[in-house]
């Protein structure tokens, strides 16, 4: 063992099982450029020891404490000096604040670009903005005639886009809380909508099985992407702006060329509806989660995947870990490389619909069917 390698005997490791089914083995095909399953992580198997490489003593102490706290569920308030050590060396999320005001399920809650405010979307037909520091509601946007599924700030933080069961996408001015545009074209529920990095284009996904690109200034459709055979649950621009990643109730993830609209890859492996899919910050991986209760990490270069458990998730800014939520009312913080759970948070009294990460990666937002938004840090 080298001087900077540590072994933590109490850490939980998700151990890969061998792949036996012919179906899973046949998923990989280098000629068609489709992925295969690399390994399956199963929480029922626990490795008693876990080795990690730390770059310095500070990181070593943090790794030891993180694993010890997580595996033994050590609570704060045990010894004052111990609490100070944890605060100094180990990242450990705890509930900071609860935002209350929505009268129905909160479907989405996301940070503004500077992390100072939050936008939420709810089944009470409203979109709301909240101040992170005070926890108070700042603005309420009313205009959708049915449940609101998703809402997001523009890259400059001046506008908000929202999508709804009323089949529309609406653009709002943050300062005035006024509706600026209504985009129509989808023939069914619009589940998800997102700004491009430069804020000039929108991408949306709908229960009408289509993905649509929109010019924000004119409000006109630029393209309609067809290929999914069931509801499109989530769409996402890649960080490099070259592709779009979509997922669907048809249990697939699709990668599309942004300029041409051509379908580049179809990722198969999930056994149920895929609820969320997101590229890593460096575009080397795609993480997906499904109704089959797994999270899968797809290596785009090698066309392989591994899987873990969860429902929806969000990458931390460094791309080395993700935060997921589940219908078991928990939030889990995972190390991407090892598949290890760093921390498990008992979050809400009902199903958690979505999580988001602050721009600095130091806070988590959770939205839930208990009508509340949780802030963790």
UniProtKB/TrEMBL annotation:
Organism of provenance: Reticulomyxa filosa
Lineage of the species this protein comes from: Eukaryota, Sar, Rhizaria, Retaria, Foraminifera
Keywords on record: Repeat, WD repeat
Classification via InterPro entries: WD40/YVTN_repeat-like_dom_sf, WD40_PAC1, WD40_repeat_CS, WD40_repeat_dom_sf, WD40_rpt
GO CC terms in record: transferase complex
Stored Gene3D superfamilies: YVTN repeat-like/Quinoprotein amine dehydrogenase
PROSITE patterns, sorted: WD_REPEATS_1 (PS00678), WD_REPEATS_2 (PS50082), WD_REPEATS_REGION (PS50294)
WD repeat boundaries on the chain: 99-140, 141-182, 183-224, 225-266, 267-308, 317-344, 345-377
Protein's UniProt name: WD-40 repeat protein
Keyword Nuclease on entry: no
One Pfam family recorded for the sequence: WD40
């Amino acid at each position: 063992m080298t001087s900077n390698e540590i072994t933590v005997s109490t850490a939980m490791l998700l151990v890969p099982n061998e792949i036996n089914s012919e179906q899973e083995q046949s998923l990989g095909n280098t000629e068609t450029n489709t992925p295969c399953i690399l390994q399956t992580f199963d929480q029922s198997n626990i490795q008693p020891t876990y080795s990690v490489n730390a770059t310095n003593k500070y990181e070593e102490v943090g790794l030891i404490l993180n694993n010890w706290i997580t595996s033994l569920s050590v609570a704060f308030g045990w010894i004052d000096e111990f609490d100070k050590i944890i605060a100094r060396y180990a990242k450990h999320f705890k509930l900071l604040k609860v935002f209350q005001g929505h009268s129905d399920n909160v479907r989405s809650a996301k940070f503004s670009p500077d992390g100072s405010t939050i936008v939420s979307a709810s089944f009470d037909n409203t979109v709301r903005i909240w101040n992170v520091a005070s926890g108070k509601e700042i603005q309420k946007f009313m205009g959708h005639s049915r449940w609101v599924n998703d809402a997001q700030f523009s890259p400059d933080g001046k506008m908000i886009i929202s999508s709804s069961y009323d089949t529309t996408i609406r653009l709002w001015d943050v300062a005035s809380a006024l509706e600026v545009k209504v985009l129509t074209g989808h023939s069914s529920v619009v589940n998800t909508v997102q700004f491009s990095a430069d804020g000039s284009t929108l991408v949306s996904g709908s229960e009408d099985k289509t993905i649509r690109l929109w010019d924000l200034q004119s409000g006109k459709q630029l393209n309609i992407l067809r290929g999914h055979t069931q509801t499109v649950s989530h769409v996402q621009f890649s960080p490099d702006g070259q592709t779009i990643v979509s997922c669907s109730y048809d249990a697939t993830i699709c990668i599309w060329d942004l300029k041409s609209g051509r379908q580049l890859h179809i990722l198969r492996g999930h056994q149920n509806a895929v609820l969320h899919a997101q590229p890593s910050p460096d575009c080397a991986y795609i993480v997906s989660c499904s109704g089959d209760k797994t999270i899968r990490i797809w290596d785009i270069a090698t066309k392989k995947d591994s899987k873990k458990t969860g429902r929806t998730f969000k990458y931390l800014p460094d791309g080395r870990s993700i935060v997921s939520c589940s219908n078991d009312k928990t939030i889990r913080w995972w190390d991407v490389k090892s598949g290890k759970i760093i921390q498990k948070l008992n979050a809400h009294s009902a199903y958690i619909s979505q999580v988001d990460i602050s721009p600095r990666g130091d806070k988590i937002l959770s939205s839930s069917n208990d009508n509340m938004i949780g802030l963790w840090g």
